[in-house]
Please model this.
Amino acid sequence: MTRIGRHFLGRLMAWTGLCLMGATAVLLSTQGLRLFPLLSGSGASPAEIGGFLGLAAIPVLGWAMAPAACLALFIVIGTMEKEGELVALLASGISVRRLWPWIAAALTALMAAAALIALLAGPLAGARLRQIALSLCGRALSASVLPGELRSVVKGVSMRFERHDNGVLQSVFFADERNSAQRLHLAARTGKLTVEPAGGMLHLRLEKGTAFVDSSGSAPHAAISFDTLNLRLPIASAIEERAGFLPPLLLAPTSALLGARPAKIPKHEWEYALWRRLASIAAVAVLGIAASLLALSAPRRRTAGVLFATLLFLSYQLTSRFFEELSRRGSLSAAAAAALPLLAPLGFACAFRIIERRRRQVYPHASLE
Model:
C-alpha cells in the first residue's frame, strides 16, 4: 500500500501543480486586463511588465490553491477509477479508505504552502506591487500632461507648460481649484515633474514664478513671488478618479499584516481582510476533503469532476459574499463572517453522500467504498 500511496501522492501533486498554473493564468489574465491601461500608459518596458506580473502572480497563487487542489483530487481519483486502479485495489482486499492518509498528507503540504503565501509572501509582494504601481501610475500621469495643452492631473488640479528641454518644463501654469473658497494659480518660468514612489507622490518643483490666491469671500486677492516652490500630489487620489485604472488591491495596503492600519480603511474591513486570509488557508483542506468525499462516493460521475469542483468552489465564494455583507452591516463579527463559509462545501458534500447512500440501498454495488 505504501507504493500505491506514493504513486497516488505523486500523481495528485503533479495534477495540483497543473491546475494551479491554469487557475493562476486565468485569474492573472483577468487582472491583467485591468492593468493594461497602467502598463501601456506608463511606457513600461518588457522587463518591468514581466516583473510586475510575476509579483502579481504570488497573491494569485494563494487564491488559486484551494480550487486547484479540489479539481486535482477529482481528476486523479476519476483517472484511477477509469483505468481500473480502484477496482484492482478492491479486488486485492484494500479499501479505498486507505487513500485518506495520503490525501491528508497532500492537503497538509498544500496548506503549508498556502499559509506561506497568505501570511508572508503575499503581503510582501502586495507591498512591493503597490510601490511599483504607484511609480508606474506617476509616470503615466506625468506623461499625460502634453506641451501646449491644459490637462487635469488630479480632480480640481490642472497643469500646462509650453515645452520641455531635457526634462525641464518651460513656462509652467498650475491651477489648484479643489477648494472653491480659495483657488490657487501658479505661473513659473521653469518646472520639473518627478515621481516619488516611496511616498506615492507626484513632485512638482517650480522656479522663478508667481502664486496668485483668489479668494471668493471678502479677503483680498494675493500675488506672491517665489524663487522655488515644491508641490506634492498624492498619486492614489489621482488613480481613484480613473475608474478601473487599478484593481482595489493595489489602491490601498489592505494586507492586514504589514504596518499599521491606514486611516482611510475602516477597522472592521481591516480585521476582515486578516480573517479572510486565515480562512483561505483552511479552505484548502475543506475543499480538498469535500472533493474527496464526493469523488470516492460517486465513481460513475468522475467525468463531471470539473462541474463538482466548480459547484464546491462557488458554494464557498457565494456564501463568503453573503456573510461578508452581513459582517459589513454589523450583524456578524469579522471572524465568523470568514469562517462560516467553510461549512458550505462540507454541507454540500455531506448532502450528496446521503443521497448516494440511499441510492446504494437500491444499487448496492454502486460505490467503491
